Batch of 2 targets.
Target 1
Amino acid sequence: MANRTYYIAGNWKMHKTRAEAAELAGALVAGLRNGKHKYLVAPSFTSLETVGPIIRGTNIALGAQNMAAEEQGAHTGEVSVLQLKDLGVQTVILGHSERRHVYKEDDALINKKVKLALKHGLEVILCVGELLEEREAGRAEAVCETQTVKGLEGVSPGDLSGIVIAYEPVWAIGTGKTATPEDADAIHAWVRGVIGRLYGGGAAEKIIIQYGGSVKPDNAAQLMAKENIDGALVGGAALKADTFVPIAAFN
Ligand code: PGA
C-alpha cells in the first residue's frame, strides 16, 4: 500500500433520526479516539448539523452523500455545495451506485458535481463499479475505466489531490457478497493504471482507492492487506459502532 494512508468512511445512507445519528457519532468518537487511520462519516443531510459539532476537532471528518450539480437556484429537493459547506461538510460522496442506477445519474452529471465540489474546496469520494452482468460479460475493467475517466474529465492535476476513488462493485453492495481481495485488488490496480495514464505515475501512486461492498469486521483486514486497497467505504456495517469501529481500527 506504498505510502498511502488508510481511509475508512461510513456511508449512513437514508438511516437514522438526529438522535440516533448523535448517539452513533458519539460512540464513534470514543471508539476511534486512538485510531491510526483517516476516518469519515456521511450522515443524511438532515443529521449533518447534529453530527458536525460532535465530531469537530476529532479524527473523524464530516461527509455528505450527494450534492446538486448547480451552486444554487430553482432546484426543488436538491442540496447545494454552499449549504453543505455552511454545515462544515469537508467531503462529498459522488456517483454512488444508488445514485447512478436508482436515480439515473450519468457520468456527465457526476462530472459536473465533481468539478463544482472541487471548485469549492470539498474533497470528493468518486464511486465507480460494475453491475453483475457487466462483470459476467468481462467488462468490469472497462466500466470502471469509463466511469473514472468521465468522472474526472476536466479535473486538473493540481485538483486531483482532492479526489478519492471508491471501487464499489454494484453486486457486492448491501448483498453480503464481498469481492475477493484478489478480484478487488485487480480492479484497484486497473483504476490506478488509468490514473497513471491520465495524471502520471506519481499521482497514481498517491491516490487513495477505497473498496466498498459488504465490508465487515471479519473481511476488512484481508481486503486492506492488498497492495492497491487503501481503505473502505462502508454502508451496512457503518450503522453500528460495534461493527464500524473494528473495521476502522483494523491493524
Ligand atoms: P454496504 O454498502 O457496505 O452495505 O455493502 C457500501 C456502500 O454502498 O457504500
Target 2
Amino acid sequence: MSRTVYVNGAYLPEEEAKISVFDRGFLMADAVYEVTSVLGGKLIDFDGHAARLARSLSELDMQSPVTRDELLAIHREMVARNGIEDGLVYLQVTRGNPGDRDFAFPDPAKVPSGIVLFTQSKPGLADNPAAKVGMKVISIPDIRWGRRDIKTVQLLYPSMGKMMAKKAGCDDAWFTEDGAVTEGTSNNAYIVKGGTIITRQLSEDILHGITRAAVLRFANEAQMIVEERPFTIDEAKAADEAFVTSASAFVMPVVEIDGVKLGSGKPGPVATRLREIYLDESRKTAV
Ligand code: PDD
C-alpha cells in the first residue's frame, strides 16, 4: 500500500512526493531531522523532539517552516492517514531549493525552508525480540564533525559504522574519541558498574537524546545512581552491563563489546528495568 507523505503543505501518495535536485538537503546535507516513535497510535516524547528541532534549526540559522502546534497537527495527521499503530514518524527540514548550487546560504526571505514527513509502520515496536537477547557492538573511531549536538542528515559515517558492525557479525558500533565512548551510530551509550549508571555528559560531542533525558529522569526518580561523565572503552568492556537509548530502540541492552561479553552475556537487570519504566511512563504522556 502506498504511504501518504507530507511535502511542504501537501499530503501526497509517496509516488508523487518529490523535491528538487537543487534542494540543499540533497546537495549539501543542509538539513536537520527528527524521528519520533508511535506506540498505540500516539506520539512518544513529542515535545522533546519539537524542542530539539527548534534548537537544531536555530544553531544553523534555518527558519522553521511550521510552528510547534502545526508540527504536532501534521504528525497526528500523518499517523492517522497512514494508520500507524506502532512505528516511527520521520521529519526533515531543509534549507530549501535556491534553484542552483552555491555554498552561501540563500536569503530565507526568498528561499523558504522545506519540510518533509513520512511514516514507517513497525507493528510490535515495543516488543522487539532483540531486547531479550541484547546487542553486540564494536568500537570505531569517531571521525564525525564537531557539532554532533545538531541533528543533521550527515549520516554517512554512522551508516559506514553500521556496515562495519555488520561485517564483524555485530549489531551496531560505538564511537570512541581519545579512548572514551562518545555515543552509538544512532543512539546514546551507557554502562552500568556496581549499580551506577554511567553515560557521557551533554556537550557538542554527542546528540542530546530525547530518550536519554527521559530515561535519566526516570532513573533518578527510581533512586538509581547516575554519573554523567566520559567512560573509556576499556571501562565499558569491564562493566556489569551496558545499553543504548534512542527513539526507535527505546532502551536496548548491549551484551558484548569488541567480542568481550559483559557480565553473564545476557541483558542486565538495570537495562531491563529501565526499558520497562521508560515504555510504561512514556506511554502515559504520549500524545
Ligand atoms: N537517532 N545519538 C545519535 C547519533 C542519534 O542519531 C540518535 C537518534 C540518538 C538518540 O536520540 P533520541 O533519543 O532523541 O532518539 C543519539 C535516530 C533514532 C535516528 O537517526 O534514526
